[in-house]
Amino acid sequence: MSKRLVKVAKELNVGTATIVEFLTNNGYSIENKPTAKISEEMESELVKEFRGSIAIKEKADQLIIGNRPAPKKEL
Description:
This protein is mainly alpha-helical. It has a single domain, classed as Arc Repressor Mutant, subunit A, CATH 1.10.10. Helix content is 53%, strand content 5%. Strands 1-2 form a two-stranded antiparallel sheet. The radius of gyration is 19 Å and the shape is elongated.
């Protein structure tokens, strides 16, 4: 089943222009539009290429960023 370019870009944590450039360089024809469809074959090529970006995104999603407690003011 084909997916939209913008959805694949979000999953891979890569920009749409980067995906279009990679696919074009590998002989695929795709428009640089967020609504462009990505075939399963294209998606598998993208996953192979940008596997590292997926790992970085998952690691970043696990980070918890909290607020530091405000310093106590003495009177």
